[in-house]
Design goal:
By secondary structure, the protein is α/β, with parallel strands linked by helices. The protein contains 7 helices and 8 strands; from the N terminus they run E-E-E-H-E-H-H-E-E-H-H-H-H-E-E. Strands 1, 2, 3, 4, 5, 6, 7 and 8 form an 8-stranded mixed beta sheet that branches. Helix 1 packs parallel to helix 3, helix 4 crosses helix 7 and helix 5 packs parallel to helix 7.
């Protein structure tokens, strides 16, 4: 039997437009790189068995949030939102305090990283990946990295991309036993002189794109190895966002 690879792919603004992290069954790092769409698809296509978690929606919203009263999966009180042009998954998460981006109904009005995500999902489907859960050897699912960190921490994380935000997220990944350095150890030898002269050990802190991809790879691993450790938000017609449950994780 071929080993399963657990892949996280983040669709990001700027260039290169994607970042990929891959783990083995023991969550050892197999790959970590940024690149164009073709490289992401080639890597995923080269895996005989894999689970891919993508940090982007599979397509625009289908208006399910506006038709929520007809959906049996909502068991709570009526949801409230001043914004209706979004997916049901995003409405559910926003009503629980997660500041997730909205996926609009018109693809041309969606953000560029989302549109690239749509294309990535199409390519994964063409490569034989099926929507999770499935019986086949290749599966894909959607996650949202900032919401993952918030779910695990219990508080809204610091703003993404800032040094404090990256430190915070890397500490979460380290506590999950993922292959990243302890972010605080890098700062043990920071002195007043170094701080005043702008000398910080930032090379030990992963860039935001890598932190997102690593979290997504962790979600992919959970989907295959500990499916009960994930919460699902949304409807398969439009897209389901999977987040880790804090009670099922290893956080000190």
């Amino acid at each position: 039997m071929s080993p399963v690879t657990y892949i996280g792919i983040d669709s990001i603004p700027g260039s290169p437009p994607f970042c990929l992290a891959a783990l083995d069954v023991d969550r050892r790092l197999v790959a970590l790189s940024a690149g164009p769409l073709a490289e992401m698809v080639a890597y995923a296509s080269g895996q005989s068995e894999a689970v891919v978690a993508v940090c982007a929606p599979p397509g625009p919203n289908l208006g399910l949030a506006e038709r929520q009263e007809s959906l049996p999966l909502i068991e709570t009180a009526p949801l409230r939102s001043r914004e209706h042009d979004l997916r049901l998954a995003e409405l559910l998460l926003r009503n629980q305090g997660f500041a997730v981006p909205r996926t609009l109904a018109d693809p041309s009005h969606c953000q560029g990283w989302m549109r690239r995500g749509f294309i990535l999902h199409e390519n994964l489907h063409s490569a034989g990946y099926e929507a999770y859960p499935c019986e086949g050897p290749r599966a894909w699912l959607e996650t949202e990295p900032d919401a993952c960190f918030q779910a695990l921490m219990g508080v809204v994380p610091f703003r993404r991309g800032t040094l404090e935000g990256r430190l915070q997220r890397q500490l979460v990944l380290h506590d999950l036993r993922l292959p990243v350095p302890d972010a605080m150890e890098s700062f043990e030898e920071v002195t007043r002189y170094k701080l005043l002269h702008g000398v910080l050990p930032a090379e030990e802190i992963h860039p935001q794109r890598e932190l997102n991809a690593l979290m997504a790879a962790h979600v992919a691993w959970l989907a295959a190895c500990k499916p009960l450790a994930l919460s699902a938000f949304g409807d398969p017609q439009e897209g389901v966002i999977y987040l880790p449950k804090p009670s099922e994780q290893t956080l000190d």
